[in-house]
From TrEMBL:
This is DNA mismatch repair protein MutS. This protein is involved in the repair of mismatches in DNA. NCBIfam families: mutS1 (TIGR01070), PRK05399.1 (NF003810). One of its GO terms (molecular function) is ATP binding. It comes from Deinococcus gobiensis (strain DSM 21396 / JCM 16679 / CGMCC 1.7299 / I-0). It comes from the Bacteria. Belongs to the DNA mismatch repair MutS family. GO terms for biological process: mismatch repair. Keywords: ATP-binding, DNA damage, DNA repair, DNA-binding, Nucleotide-binding. The keyword Ribosomal protein does not apply. Residues 687-703 form the DNA mismatch repair proteins mutS family domain.
Length: 836
């Protein structure tokens, strides 16, 4: 606290400083919002920060010999300001007054600690998942992920940092805890922060503490956590979450150790290049946008999880495809399921709120409304087997919960349990009796006006109520003479007077007593109900998961039906991929009816497809179409094609476009090469590799050399490779590399008309690059394009010369047969004549 003056701090500020220090010991940079009457105040440096971050006025709290900056927000504006602070990456502690203000210092308590990765209040959350992550190292890397809002708790071990980073990027954690061995390494921390601009918070990574945390929350240290790094990461996440949740972590019931290798490897670069979740241009559409036909928030989260982690297991893929297929074949079933889902609330989150005994009456009612739908869903799914049958089984078993809630709670309860009026009449005898008695008194009061008018003969007599006197009888001046003797005057106004009677006071006190007792009892009954629901947390979580699965399957079926997608045939051991009339779902949507579908065939005898064609012809779209179909197949979705047979790929690797990593300070070329390095190291015979314009970021010859070497390497791995390039020299590789096949995207250059794109992928190499032609289309001045055309001619000859010289130098004349020499001469001549 930066005060001026010599005096000691006023008592309230002393209390503030003490609480702020306590908070700071746990969350060093948090801002403490300190209730002072109708405002939440901050003081000192925090006031300056808050004023800046929230755009609120900075004032001063001053007394005779003391002054400090102060900034506050009204109580009712708490939520929006908390949200703003969280969005700015600042944690918030809220200290509330916990007693009625009297003459002395009001007692206050920190009631909430809010951090971006651990908020659970619906109003601070988007419907998406909200992960808190912890990373520790040891033998490799360990990652723990916790979504406090649903209780989902997972962990995994990684051999390499890049695999860890890929997973972290995929789960989009909102807050990360780094073990000291990482946060203490300045270079590593800086690298981390440029990759993941999220809040980094401190936590306890001690292994023994971690074990204790695990025991406290899960009652054990699960055997799957078989390394110190895993225990430390999981322990850190739990400890931090427990701190921010004030000990309430009942929604966390188990930790699932997942194998990163159990899913298709999908690099961060691939996720970005295929625009799964984030568009590359601000108005762009993502694959997720197109896929997301789900009806519930849980379904949307589940779909995203599927898309982040495509499957490798044949049976699981078939199971999902079977579920989607059944729903495409039964339009009535699909429509029925989807209309029921439309009415469902976020069951996963509600289940977590119930498990932690935090659910409000309104949330419990929403839970009942959602559970009420389940028997109908189960009935719709009665004839289904396979995955839909499993979903049905997981949805059963909760009807008594609904009955219990329905019996106890009114249909439309208030938000807060303390407001009363939430328990149904007839549910609790004692409560009913209290209410009946209170009602009796109220009715007596309601009749009092009439009966007193009769008794006194004063037709204008009124019964009124105010906060000072409670109930009173009011008589106008003209009738004061008729006032009976049992009235006691309590107030005199200009033209009338107010009276009370001893029995009136008594009734009033009795009503207040009965209603307070009823309120207390309601709260007790509600708390008991809510706690009894916590016992069903497991089944609730199960049902919530099943509902999300069903939502995704039904959404995918809807999509497939609407857009004419087909079920791909899974060829688990197969080497061949065959797509007929495949479309890129996002580009197709953007081009309206003008989309040109294309076939793709990869496999024996053609595992590397080399694609040439002018810019803007559709090369990149073609490449991505194949990758997206492969991905969709392995999440269990139909694919946008007329026919599809696909193997199960262990990875989809992509290197597409020139994405500058400006924030990371690396040049385009450097980024390109490090991504390429990752692909060349990682690709196997079971991978799908998509490379677009490799080598573009450097000089032509360097680029060509690198592109060719990379292509040859991939060719040797046996990976299914699609390689789009503007290096026409590469098309010559076809002859000497069995399995490498040239394709091009058809385009035509008409004299004077310019280029026509057909977007049709056809066999063979493109004739020329059309680069200059595209430049002309883009509006480059005619003299410039004309000069470029002439230069190109000269360069092409030089390029051929260079190629010939290299080939010549590499010849082993002693072993060359006359036939080979002739072939070589023929090839050179063909090259010089422009490939004719
Ligand atoms: P390239 O990679 O060859 O430069 P792109 O794949 O980026 O070309 O495609 C350029 C544009 O052409 C796309 O934005 C899209 O509008 C259109 N396009 C691409 N493929 C098709 C197609 N098959 N049918 C219709 N339009 C297409």
């Amino acid at each position: 606290m930066k005060g001026t003056g010599t005096g000691a701090l006023p008592p309230m500020l002393e209390q503030y400083v003490r609480m702020r220090d306590e908070v700071a010991a746990q969350l060093p940079h948090a801002i403490l919002l300190f209730q002072v009457g109708d405002f939440y105040e901050t003081f000192g440096e925090d006031a300056e920060r808050a004023a800046r971050l929230l755009g609120i006025a900075l004032t001063h709290k001053s007394s005779r010999d003391f002054s400090t900056p102060m900034a506050g927000v009204p109580l009712r504006a708490l939520d929006q300001n908390v949200e703003r602070l969280l969005a700015a990456g600042v944690c918030v502690a809220v200290a509330d007054q916990v007693e009625e203000p009297g003459s002395g210092l009001v007692e206050r308590k920190v009631t909430h600690l809010l951090t971006p990765g651990t908020v659970t209040e619906e109003r601070h959350l988007s419907a998406d998942e909200n992960y808190l992550a912890a990373v520790a190292t040891g033998d490799g890397y360990a990652l723990a992920l916790l979504d406090v809002s649903t209780g989902e708790f997972r962990c995994a071990a990684f051999h390499t940092r890049s695999a860890l980073y890929d997973e972290l990027a995929r789960c989009r954690a909102r807050e990360v805890l780094l073990a000291p061995e990482m946060s203490g390494n300045a270079a590593l921390k800086a690298d981390f922060q440029t990759r993941f601009p999220v809040m980094l918070s401190p936590a306890n990574f001690d292994e023994a503490v971690g074990r204790a945390e695990l025991r406290a929350v899960l009652n054990e240290v699960p055997g799957s956590l078989n390394s110190a790094a895993l225990v430390r990461a999981c322990g850190a996440v739990l400890g931090y979450a427990r701190l921010t949740q004030q000990g309430r972590l009942e929604m966390v019931r188990r930790v699932v150790r997942f194998e990163p290798g159990a899913h298709m490897r999908l690099s961060d670069a691939a996720v970005r290049a295929l625009e799964l979740f984030v568009p590359q241009s601000p108005q762009g559409v993502t694959l997720m946008d197109v896929l997301c036909q789900t009806r519930t928030a849980g379904g949307k989260r589940r779909l995203r999880a599927w898309l982040r982690a495509p499957l490798l297991d044949e049976l699981s893929i078939r199971a999902r495809l079977g579920g989607v297929e059944a729903l495409t074949r039964a339009p009535d079933l699909r429509a029925g399921v989807r209309s029921l889902l439309y009415r469902a609330h976020d069951l996963e989150r509600l289940a977590a709120r119930v498990a932690t005994r935090r659910a409000t009456p309104r949330e419990v009612a929403a839970l009942a409304r959602t559970l009420d739908l389940l028997p109908e869903v189960v009935a719709l799914l009665a004839a289904q087997d396979g995955l839909l049958g499993t979903v049905r089984a997981r949805l059963g078993g909760l009807p008594e919960v609904v009955t219990r809630i329905r019996a106890a709670l009114v249909d439309d309860p208030p938000i807060r349990a303390g407001d009363g009026g939430l328990i149904r009449d007839g549910f609790h005898e004692e409560l009913d009796a209290l209410r009946r008695d209170a009602l009796g008194h109220r009715e007596w009061l309601a009749h009092l006006e009439l009966s007193e008018r009769e008794r006194t003969g004063i037709g204008s007599l009124k019964v009124g109520y105010n906060n000072v006197f409670g109930y009173y009888l009011e008589v106008t001046g003209a009738h004061l003479g008729k006032v009976p003797t049992d009235y006691r005057q309590i107030a005199t106004l200009k033209d009338r007077a107010r009276f009370t009677r001893p029995d009136l006071r008594e009734r009033e006190r009795e009503i207040a007593r009965l209603e307070a007792a009823a309120g207390r009892l309601e709260l007790e009954v509600f708390t008991e109900l809510r706690d009894s629901l916590a016992a069903h947390a497991e089944a609730l979580g199960e049902a919530a998961g099943a509902l999300s699965d069903l939502d995704v399957l039904a959404g995918l079926a809807e999509l497939a039906t609407e857009h004419g997608w087909v079920r791909p045939v899974t060829r688990p051991g197969g080497e061949d991929a065959r797509l007929t009339q495949a479309r890129h779902p996002v580009v197709e949507g953007a081009t309206g009816g003008r989309y040109v579908p294309n076939d793709a065939e990869l496999g024996r005898g053609r595992h590397v497809l080399l694609l040439t064609g002018p810019n803007m012809a559709g090369k990149s779209t073609y490449l991505r179409t194949v990758a997206i179909c492969a991905l969709l197949h392995q999440i269990g979705s139909f694919v946008p094609a007329a026919g599809a047979e696909l193997p199960i790929y262990d990875a989809v690797h992509t290197r597409i476009g020139a994405s500058d990593d400006l924030a990371g300070g690396r040049s385009t070329f450097m980024v390109e090469m490090s991504e390429l390095a990752g692909i060349l190291h990682g690709a196997t015979a079971r991978s799908l590799v998509i490379l677009d314009e490799v080598g573009r970021g450097t000089s032509t010859l360097d680029g060509l050399a690198i592109a060719q070497a990379a292509l040859e390497h991939l060719h040797a791995t046996g990976a299914h490779t699609l390689f789009a390039t503007h290096y026409f020299e590469l098309t010559r590789l076809e002859g000497d590399h069995p399995g490498l096949v040239n394709l091009h995207v058809a385009a035509e250059e008409d004299e004077g008309q310019g280029l026509t794109f057909y977007h049709q992928v056809v066999p063979g190499a493109a004739r020329q690059s059309y680069g200059v032609e595209v430049a002309r289309l883009a509006g480059l001045p005619a003299p410039v394009t004309a000069r470029a055309g002439r230069l190109l001619g000269a360069l092409n000859t030089q390029g051929d010369d260079a190629q010939m010289r290299r080939d010549l130098a590499a010849l082993d004349l002693g072993r060359l047969t006359p036939l080979e020499a002739l072939e070589l001469l023929h090839r050179w001549q063909r090259g010089l004549l422009g490939g004719e």
